[in-house]
């Protein structure tokens, strides 16, 4: 297969992208294409000592930044790395497109260039959500759709379950609905209706969950609207950063505490590693006719490498095709009722 | 003043309530009345060696549990500790009512027994939100109103600012609106409209905030709808519990790490203390014609004591009266525009 990387997206582009590609290339057989300003990327490949032919470069003169209105940018900047990269997936020149750039541009590109899967109302950004000392969950939606209908939440759950099963390898994944209480009948008009739809579906729905339980590995697929999902992911990240910062600061108080910290070095390093989103690979944009992975803007070499590795089952297990099948099954069921 | 305590609410009632009352009584001059099953409370007072007359008991034979539908329970159980306690505030027999019981019953009791402040559409549950290594913020709403209008968010901000200033003593408190991005124009129809209203108000509005920043002490008053606020408070609590659990587990790995943990004992204890909601006192229900404080269901002696202490400026600074004034000023402003 052929993996297309956005060479220009993210805070550390193109260097961390190129280094991640080189690290991944050592572990896989697949071709990697980096799209972006050819001279910059070639320089970075050279500076990082790459001499192989597994990684190639496709030139794109324009860059879409986080500050631009995504829809307009995708429509105008035909020669941007994002537009070119996604078009390569559409045209069969690549199997998956990966970017650490603008989430909005990835979503708009997915919609306009690849198009929605038939029967999907709203594609979703599904984040791999770290659960400390456990395998991660999938959280969907995390910001693609701030305002949702209940039908959208059912779609997110269906797509998230497929990704969890096929890419992260968990069979018959459990699905929980984020709510303000665990009892049936709790919540807003949206969550009440979504509860009904999820209960009636073939998914492994376990009912309402509260955010208090997320770090208890309460379910595999966490379903919520994009506004709440965005708040959850960012708060988790902020709390993780705060904890590491506070431990460091407090453990440097005096000679005694510094010695304690030295003795606990391994444990602190492990904890830090678990708080690191980079370990888990990027966030898939599900519901469009092609495989797209969004990485965190601050992705480093490790994050890029991990995302490239996770993109392989995403493509090989044909998650996009399986979503198409699942959605058409749901629709058949609806129309036969 | 006279502080009315629900002797029957919470996981550890009446014992932790009684012990908290005894601890508070040592530090204040005010009368404390415990409402609930007289024999149980008298037994607990006796068992805890209390012999004074600063704490008295008012009998209430019924108890409203968390499992009951709050509105129905408040209407039917006239002899419950919650209904009797709130009625005492209405009738001038008490200045504030404090409970660790059902939040729904407190809200329903506030609405039906005390009534809304004129001009307030929706009373709010405003939680004191812990920010590690900083003074706490106020988060409003935290679950009283899962579905909100923009006007409600402005009311929450107005009431939360007053509570922050008068009770927690922070002058001209900053107000931030939880959103899925910091730029103006971000968010849902609700947050966009709330942004406009907050910008046009006299509040010290700093704009949109992301949940990633909450532990950076980004603002004094965090404004959001009750669904999102509930998710934030519960996730913060869940993350805090997870961190303490993980540190403990990891630090007990082997003899070396155990020694490290011993050397870091003071620092770990301090961090644990900061994660403890109990330090900050209860959550006020703002917007009703009387002072109500809701404590966490698992409140221990310390939490009860702290909430009693915080109830004093809540009453003495006449936060309820100041909310009435502020809301009528807002209304005058509206009608003169």
Automatic annotation (TrEMBL), chains A, B:
Transferase found in the keyword field? yes
Give the GO terms filed under biological process for this record: fatty acid biosynthetic process; phospholipid biosynthetic process
Gene (UniProt): plsX
Indicate yes or no for the key word Metal-binding.
Answer: no
Q: Which SUPFAM superfamilies match?
A: Isocitrate/Isopropylmalate dehydrogenase-like
InterPro entries recorded: FA_synthesis (IPR003664), Phospholipid_synth_PlsX-like (IPR012281)
User: What is the official name of this protein in its record?
Assistant: Phosphate acyltransferase
- Catalytic reaction(s) noted: a fatty acyl-[ACP] + phosphate = an acyl phosphate + holo-[ACP]
Question: What is the protein's species of origin?
Answer: Aminicella lysinilytica
Write down the Pfam families for this protein, in alphabetical order.
Answer: FA_synthesis (PF02504)
Outline the subunit composition.
Homodimer. Probably interacts with PlsY.
Compartments annotated for it: namely: Cytoplasm
> Which Gene Ontology CC terms are recorded?
cytoplasm
Q: Which residues form a coiled coil?
A: none
Q: Which UniProt keywords apply?
A: Acyltransferase, Cytoplasm, Lipid biosynthesis, Lipid metabolism, Phospholipid biosynthesis, Phospholipid metabolism, Transferase
- What pathway, per the record? Lipid metabolism; phospholipid metabolism
- Give the UniProt family note: Belongs to the PlsX family.
What GO molecular function terms would the record report?
Answer: phosphate:acyl-[acyl carrier protein] acyltransferase activity
């Amino acid at each position: 297969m052929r993996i297309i990387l956005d060479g220009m997206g993210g805070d550390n582009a193109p260097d961390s992208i190129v280094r991640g590609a080189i690290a991944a290339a050592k572990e896989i057989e697949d071709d990697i294409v980096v799209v972006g300003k050819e001279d910059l990327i070639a320089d970075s490949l050279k500076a990082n000592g790459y001499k192989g032919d597994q990684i190639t470069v496709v030139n794109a003169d324009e860059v879409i930044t986080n500050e631009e209105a995504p829809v307009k940018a995708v429509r105008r900047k035909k020669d941007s790395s994002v537009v070119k990269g996604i078009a390569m997936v559409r045209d069969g020149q690549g199997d998956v497109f990966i970017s650490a750039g603008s989430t909005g541009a990835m979503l708009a590109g997915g919609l306009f260039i690849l198009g929605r899967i038939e029967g999907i109302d709203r594609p979703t950004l599904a984040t791999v959500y770290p659960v400390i000392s456990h395998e991660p969950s999938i959280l969907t939606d995390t910001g693609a759709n701030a305002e949702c209908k209940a039908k959208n939440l059912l779609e997110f759950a269906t797509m998230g379950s497929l990704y969890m099963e096929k890419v992260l390898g968990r069979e018959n994944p459990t699905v929980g609905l984020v709510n303000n209480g665990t009892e049936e009948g709790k919540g807003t008009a949206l969550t009440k209706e979504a509860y009904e739809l999820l209960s009636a579906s073939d998914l492994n729905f376990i009912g309402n969950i509260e955010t208090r339980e997320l770090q208890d590995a309460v379910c595999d697929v966490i379903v919520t609207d994009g506004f709440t999902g965005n708040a959850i992911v960012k708060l988790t990240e902020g709390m993780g950063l705060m904890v590491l910062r506070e431990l460091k600061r407090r453990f440097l108080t005096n000679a005694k505490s510094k010695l304690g910290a030295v003795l606990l070095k391994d444990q602190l390093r492990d904890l830090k590693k678990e708080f690191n989103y980079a370990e888990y690979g990027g966030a898939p944009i599900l519901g469009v006719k092609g495989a797209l992975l969004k990485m965190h803007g601050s992705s480093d070499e490790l994050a890029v490498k991990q995302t490239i590795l996770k993109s392989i089952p995403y493509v090989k297990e044909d998650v996009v095709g399986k979503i198409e099948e699942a959605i058409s099954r749901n629709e058949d069921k609806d129309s036969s009722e």
